[in-house]
Design goal:
Layout lengths: L16 H19 L48 E9 L6 E5 L6 E3 L8 H8 L2 E11 L9 E15 L10
């Protein structure tokens, strides 16, 4: 018996076989990379107007005109329903849509899309003063009702309003 219990078998290696296979793999990968057409580099959104890419004409921002609050109910824009009146609270909140409406008696929030519709002047002033506004709110839906999704609306008017300090921005008293 030449081999003992504690000896490990020796691995057999060819002198250049492993290196040759690796070289062929690298060459193949390089050639494939050269044959695949590359996408043009994306231009960051904040530098589109300053880019030297082949754009023609001046750089402008296109935004749709805001729908005035007094013409929300008569507008022919893409609304999903007619104007309705609800009793609710308009408040300034955190999130993608900073102006929200809570219909009294529900557990739902409606988002007011101020990028498409102007707020009524009286509501705009009170919200900027960090006040919650309760009253009869005339709204028109921009999106359909869907469980678990905030419904987007435009606020046309508010009547019989009363205000109170906004709950979310009022400082918490010390105990």
């Amino acid at each position: 018996m030449n081999e003992s219990f504690f000896s490990a078998p020796q691995l057999k290696r060819d002198s250049l076989d492993g290196a040759t296979n690796l070289m062929w793999i690298l060459v193949t990968v390089f050639l494939v990379m050269q044959a695949v057409p590359q996408r043009p580099a994306l231009i960051p959104a904040d530098s589109v107007c300053t880019s030297t890419a082949a754009f023609t004409g001046p750089c402008t921002t296109i935004r749709p005109a805001l729908i005035p609050a007094d013409s929300v109910c008569t507008s022919t824009a893409a609304f999903t329903g007619p104007c309705t009146t609800i009793r609710g609270r308009v408040t300034l909140a955190n999130g993608a849509f900073p102006v929200k409406i809570w219909p009294v008696g529900t557990r739902r929030l409606l988002g007011v899309d101020i990028s498409r519709c102007e707020l009524p002047k009286n509501i705009q002033r009170l919200v900027e003063e960090e006040k919650d506004v309760y009253g009869g709110l005339e709204i028109r839906p921009l999106t359909a009702s869907e469980p678990g999704v905030m419904k987007m609306v435009c606020l046309a008017s508010a009547v019989n309003t009363r205000t109170q300090a906004a709950a979310l921005v009022t400082p918490i008293p010390n105990p």
